[in-house]
Design brief:
279 residues, alpha/beta, four-stranded mixed β-sheet, globular
């Protein structure tokens, strides 16, 4: 059995990459983590009949001989795939646009510094002359736009723009994108942003200006990533990190957002999460 999967907290780029890999490997089973970003869950629930997706608990890992991983290079970001880590003779195919050091020893990999992971898959879809449906093109463009900030983030490359043009040619619907990519920002997010700005801290790390904030939160607040991105923009720093400690559940959420090429926000987010757990 061959399966395709991606990181927990699945965003549009990760979900799009899974389904694009499914086109390249039609016999593989597409497996999405149980934890999806709310806008991704909403999109897939509306179009659930159009995508053949499984959850990790439905997969017999003993039967897996080939594992395709997209948009991450770290085992601990995968959902319920731990037993495969030590499996002998497991083929691992990796597609990742993050060039930070990971711990997945891939048999074959495609790793390039492009703005969105889906751009790597689109490169191969074009080479193989694969035809996309309008809904596939729309989902893929959602992933590309979300990870590149509509082609405005500094990490965006020319290939990302060419991939976007290709997806529009394939029938991607921009009106659908506007509905699902518009970030929700309400009273809960406003209050947290206000508290973050009142206790804003700036530090210099490896030549970059970063903002770090640690807050206790009560109850569930959606779209904290939007708050952290706004915090970064207002502080005018290269990267920002929000460390949110849920008072009732006791869990810690660390969210990082960066606009600087070369700054490894993913690894630093993991570091801050580890440090916070013991302080």
């Amino acid at each position: 059995m061959q399966i395709i999967t991606t990181h927990k907290g699945t965003d549009f780029d990760a979900a799009a990459s899974v389904l694009a890999a499914k086109i390249l490997h039609p016999e593989a089973v597409a497996v999405l983590p149980n934890s999806l970003n709310p806008n991704v869950r909403a999109f897939l629930s509306i179009h659930k009949d159009l995508f053949d997706l499984q959850t990790p608990d439905k997969i017999e890992l003993e039967a897996v001989m080939s594992l395709i991983i997209v948009d991450t290079n770290k085992w601990d970001r995968l959902d319920q795939m731990d037993r495969l880590k030590e499996k002998e003779n497991l083929e691992i195919i990796l597609w990742d646009h993050h060039l930070n050091e990971g711990d997945i020893d891939a048999t074959w990999k495609c790793m390039d510094a492009v703005g969105a992971n889906i751009t790597l898959l689109i490169r191969n879809l074009k080479e193989q002359n694969k035809r996309l449906t309008p809904i596939q093109a729309t989902l893929f463009l959602a992933g590309l736009y979300e990870d590149t900030g509509n082609l405005t983030f500094p990490a965006t490359k020319a290939e990302d723009a060419l991939a976007a043009a290709y997806l529009l040619q394939q029938g991607a619907d921009l009106s659908v994108l506007n509905s699902f990519l518009r970030p929700a920002y309400g009273e809960g997010q406003r209050k947290i942003l206000t508290r973050m700005l009142q206790s804003a801290q700036r530090k210099r790390l490896d030549g970059y200006q970063i903002g770090i904030n640690k807050l206790d939160i009560i109850g569930h607040v959606n779209n904290l990533a939007v708050v952290v991105e706004m915090y970064r923009e207002i502080l005018n720093v290269d990267a920002a990190f929000g460390i949110f400690i849920h008072q009732k559940r006791g869990n810690i959420i660390v969210i990082g957002r960066s606009s600087a090429d070369g700054f490894d926000a993913v690894s630093y987010t993991h570091l801050r999460a580890h440090e916070t757990a013991y302080t």
